[in-house]
Amino acid sequence: MKPDIKWLDNPEVFRVNVLPACSDHQFYQSREEMKEGKNSLSLSLNGTWQFLYSKNAKERPEEFYQSDYAERTFEEIKVPCHIEMAGYDKIHYINTLYPWEGHEFRRPAYSLLGKAKWEGMFSEAEYNPVGSYRKKFDLPSEFMGKRVAICFEGVEQAMYLWLNGEFVGYAEDSFTPSWFDLTPYIKDKGNVLAVEVHKRSTAAFLEDQDFFRFFGIFRNVTLYAKPQMHVEDLWAKPVLSEDGTGSLGVDLKISMQEGMTGRAEITLTDKEGKELLTHTMLLPGDVRGKQQCAGAFREISCEMSQRDLGKVTAWDNHNPYLYHLQVVLYDEADRLVEVVPYQIGFRTIEIKDKVIYLNGKRLIINGVNRHEWSAEGGRCIGMEEMQKDMACFLRNNINAVRTCHYPDQIPWYYLCDKNGIYMMSETNLESHGSWQKLGGTEPSWNVPGSIPQWKAAVLDRASNHFETFKNHVSILFWSLGNESHVGDDIEAMNVFFKDKKDGRLVHYEGVCQDRSYEDTVSDVESRMYAPPAQIREYLENNPKKPFILCEYMHDMGNSIGGMGSYIKLLDEFEMYQGGFIWDFIDQAILVTDAVTGRKVMRYGGDFDDRPSDYEFSGNGIVFADRSEKPAMQEVRYYYGLHK
Amino acid sequence: MACTNKALKIVYGDSTLGIHGMCGEKDFHYIFSYAKGFESLVSDGKEWLYRSPVPAFWRALTDNDRGNSFHLKSGMWLAADMFIRCIGARVVADGAEIPMPVAPENNKYSDNETAESMKIVYTYETITVPSVQVQVSYEVDIEGGIMVCAHYFGKEDLPQLPVFGLRFLMPTCADKFVYEGLSGETYPDRMAGGIKGVYEVEGLPVTPYMVPQDCGMHMDTTWAEIYRSSELDNTRKERKQTVLRLEACEKNFAFSCLPYTPCELENAFHHEELPPARRTVLTVYGAVRGVGGIDSWGADVESAYHVDATKDIEFSFRIKP
Question: What is the pTM of this model?
Answer without folding.
Answer: 0.97
